[in-house]
Amino acid sequence: MSNHDEELNPFFTGLAKWVIAHRWTTMALAMLVTTICMVRLVTNPLVLDNRPEVFEPKGSNATVVLSELREEFGRDDLFLIVFEGDVFSLDFLKKLQTVHDEVAALDMELEEPIEEAVPEQAADDGFGDFGDDSEWGDDEGGTIIDQVVSLVGVRETRASADGIVVGELMDDWPTAETMAAFKERVVSDASFVNKVVDKEGKRAVMAVRTIEMSEPDSARVYHLIHDILDKYKTDGFVPLMGGTPSFTIRLNEINIMDMARTFLLAMLVMLVVMAYLFRHWVGILGPLVVVQLSSIWTIALMSFLGMTLNYINSVVTVFLVSVAVGDAIHIQSLYRDKRRDGLSNEDAIIHTLGITGVPIFYTSITTMIGLFSFALASIKPVNELGVMGGCGVFFAFLVSCTVVPALLTFNKTGTLGARENPESGPIDKLLDLCNRASGAGPNGKRNLRLSVVMGVALVAGGLLAAPTILVTHDPLMWFPDHFETKKASDTLDEYVGGASQMSLLIEINSEQGIKDLEFMKSLEKLEQYIHAYRDPHYGDIVGNITSVLDIVRETNRALHGGDQAYYKIPDTPRELADVLFLFENAWPDQLRRLATNDLRKTQVTMNLKWLHGDEYRPLTDYIEKGIDELMADTARVRPTGLIYSVLSTMGVLVIDLAKSFGSAFFLITILLILLMKNLLCIRLKDFKCKRDLKNH
Q: Closest by alpha carbon to 173, among 88, 239, 111, 241?
């Protein structure tokens, strides 16, 4: 049998002949599709979205509760800025005041406006309709800033002739002579410590709440705030910007840089390898075209489907580099061999595609099955990675079998770097060594046994090691230590109550809502219960807790002349109703941030130290136990927030991977069985033909 007598697949030989006859049409169609995709990406570019809730499983209860919480109370994630320096000095406070005012006055036109929930009007509950005249948005300035809270802008409740008044803590600025007393007053008050200042008085905190907006708009706000901070940064006034929005924005920016850097590096390595292997512009251009077209088509398809990019599905382009290059190299390598054997250019293309078409199809289809199995995943980014990766593999296969042969028609004389001695190159020698190690050499039987033993050992080792794999999630570890976001998080954790956040959405059973004294007492017990938690490894991880209890206790204290003994819930329902009525009249905006118009829903926000995702599990179990024991009779309490988003993701990740790998293994096994059956039939037929010829 000659070198050119291999069995050729009729479909792929026919495809090769068509491409040869219509090479310009083939390339024109590819360019047309690419042009449509590029127009789509220019007019509707993909945006990065790495918000924690993006990675939650479909139908996650945490997501449902979080959406309801934001609908009722506005945005829950804040920009947190830590200022390090001599907080209780006039110079520091003046700079802080300037920054506070400039941040509060920020304004810009949103590129992607989001319609915010309008608070429902409550029926007359004897408490006033504070929803009528208090809208989302702060009364301090800009339209994009909902609220700014800092030492120079925090409110305090004071007694007045008419009851109480809510005013600025620093309505009367301290002087150099009164600064020591002012410091003592602030750091001894639970209303301010770990909220606007640390207990040592060496760090001030500014919390910035924006209106609900898209990720790109939030990124613009982040940089506007950062520009303000940079203007006033000095040795004695060092701002560090953190919080969940800052974290997400910086992660997006790093993601973009990493995507570009990784893709360009992969392309550079590919070009160097292609230049070494083929030494001809056609041989270099072929893999490059496959990579570029399959990547562009895949990204454009994501845009057409309305997807966003994140740090999981964004790796699909880098993944396609290896897959696409493999298909193109397989075709071009065999083509080169055929040219070296003396075939004409057209015959070499036909033989190459007729021989390689089926193997490339099978490798592509098995890879697609493996990737499409991730469509079973409950986590959206993982689902999208699988679906888009599978589509990208198909695009790479399509381009490899059409555009690459069309490009090869322009190679009239060259053999794409073929050597006279095909075994003389280092790569050829390496491949020959691999062949002999797998049992293809002179000692094939012995080497095959060795290969089987090594394979079984590797599989067994993998199975034994699998249960020891730790599934965790701590995106903060992805940041280098010198990054501002990480430094801010570490500072918040160590000195100011914590950089992470958990919320409770509470629906009160009583029609009185937050005016119900029994509910308030049970809420206070829950708060005390949570504060008592100590992690076995990290100790005290729960920082400040913000709830309607704060305004009740502060108002009650103010009504009793600032006596700290009255920093508690009033003793009678009547007193509680009076306290809430007086506060509502003094500051309706703040009450609206903590309770709905009908007073039946309220929220609790907890600041926690940043831990690995799975390390929060003991705390969440502890809190849920406390909710069942302390709140079951008075309210329905549902936890949510970043921590629950992470735990929800981790809870289904292993199950999703098991389902995906299991389904992929089953389908690929069936496919390989069918393939081996067909090959066996072909071999048996070939053997029978040879035997019949021998007998004749």
A: 88
Residue 141: strand, helix, or coil = coil
The interaxial angle of helices 23-43 and 380-408, nearest 10 deg, is 150
Say which DSSP state 614 is in.
Answer: G
- From 157, 173, 222, select the one nearest 560 (Cα to Cα): 157
Which CA distances in Å does 473 have to 373, 636, 643, 644?
23, 29, 10, 12
Contact 266, 318 (CB under 8 A): yes
**Phi, psi (rounded to 5 degrees) for 129:** -95, 80
Backbone angles phi, psi at 206, to 5 degrees: -120, 125
| CA 510 to chain centroid | 39
Low-confidence ranges of the chain (pLDDT < 70): 1-6, 59, 112-142, 161-163, 413-452, 454-455, 459, 462-478, 586, 650-651, 653-654, 671-672, 674-696
C-alpha to C-alpha distance for 186 and 196, rounded to whole angstroms: 9
CA atoms 140, 141, 142, 143: torsion sign: positive
pTM over 0.85: no
Kindly list the distances between the CA atom of residue 161 and the CA atoms of 551, 556, 574, 651, in Å, as whole numbers in the listed order: 19, 15, 20, 56
- The upper half-sphere exposure of residue 275, i.e. CA atoms within 13 Å in the direction of its Cβ, equals 6
Are 502 and 496 a contacting pair, CB within 8 Å?
no
Euclidean distance between CA atoms 454 and 458, whole angstroms:
6
**Is 104 within 8 Å of 154 (Cβ atoms)?**
no
Residue 394 C-alpha from the chain's centroid: 26
Is 123:513 a contact under the CB 8 Å cutoff?
no
Length of the chain: 696
Runs of H (alpha helix) within 506-572: 517-531, 548-559
Q: What is the pLDDT of residues 486-517, one digit of tens each?
A: 888 888 888 887 888 889 999 999 999 999 99
The Cα angle at residue 221 between residues 215 and 227, in degrees rounded to 5: 140
- Residue 81 CA to residue 238 CA, distance in Å, equals 10
Residue 547 phi, psi dihedral angles, 5° rounding: -155, 180
HSE-up (13 A, CA, CB side) for residue 203: 22
Residue 575 to residue 163: CA distance in whole angstroms? 13
pLDDT digits (tens, 9 = 90+) for 546-565: 899 988 998 888 888 888 88
Starting from the edge strand earliest in sequence, which strands make up the sheet with 500-508, in order?
Answer: 542-546, 601-608, 500-508, 635-640
| Model pLDDT, residue 474 | 62
What share of residues in the chain are helix, strand, coil (percent, to 5)?
Answer: 60, 10, 30
What is the per-residue pLDDT for 27?
A: 93
List domains and CATH numbers for the chain: 10-52+249-417+650-695 (1.20.1640.10)
CA pair distance 244, 225, nearest whole angstrom: 15
Rounded to whole angstroms, how far apart are CA atoms 142 and 100? 12
